[in-house]
Amino acid sequence: MPEFDQPIPAPTTDSGQDQGGLWAKVNPFNAESMAKAEKQSGELLESAKGGGFPVSENAGKDLQDAITEALGDLDEIMYEADGLAEEPKLGTGPYAKQVAQHVQQSGNGPRGILPMLRKLRTVLEQSEEALKIAMRNYHEAEEQQKQTFRQ
User: Where do the record's region annotations for Disordered lie (predicted)?
Assistant: First the structure.
């Protein structure tokens, strides 16, 4: 059975040459990649909470809209993919049972698509929260500057 955490093979040309490049380094269904993204979004959130960076409303609005849209799209994908959490009914023979278990594991197993989508949701939620805090930080800094000039 194939492993779902293996790198996706790089596309090749008609002559079989590896196109490599970025494709060879990117696998959105790789647990390690998702763990790194989750860690980085958590660090971004902590930095924002600590006042590490401000973001103006003008700069943040488009990012916020993109994250909101991505979360909506992800919700739709997760709703449609939810059926992958159950073993399909393929029959009672040993091979049918083996295939059904494999299909279920590819959907909701430790390295399945559903856990990866949940991690992606966490990344997006943490990024959204960090952006909101950073925008609030900018607004507060702007208000403090206004107070300084009023005195």
Answer: 1-58
